Amino acid sequence: MSTPLTLSTKRHDDGTVLLTVSGEIDLSNVSTFARELAEATRNGLTTVDLSEVDYLDSGAINALFTHVDHIRIRANPILLPVLTISGLAGVVPTEL
User: Can you say how many angstroms the Cα of residue 43 is from the centroid of all Cα atoms in its chain?
Assistant: First the structure.
């Protein structure tokens, strides 16, 4: 059974992309998240809005690490310890 995950992408006039994610990212849906993230970052800078994400596993962290040069993260405060311990917050601009 897949964990609920909602993704939406919006391209701005300046070429940047906003990928909004809500729910939980885990083994059951990380491939969908990774595909959407790859598509969103294809043409430039993407803000990944995780402010409505309550949980992400190591697969989600790995997917984000794959695109460190092309993303910024807007995070739910509950995710900050995971983003910090993984080192992601140190290499990707991260805001709460």
Answer: 16
* pLDDT for residue 44 is more than 80: yes
Domain that includes residue 59, residue range: 5-95
Beta strands per DSSP E along the chain: 5-11, 17-25, 46-56, 71-75, 94-95
Per the structure, the count of domains in the chain is: 1
Task: State both tokens at 56.
Answer: 């992400």
* Verdict on whether the full-model pTM lies above 0.90: yes
Hey, CA dihedral for 66, 9, 42, 32, is it positive or negative? Answer: positive
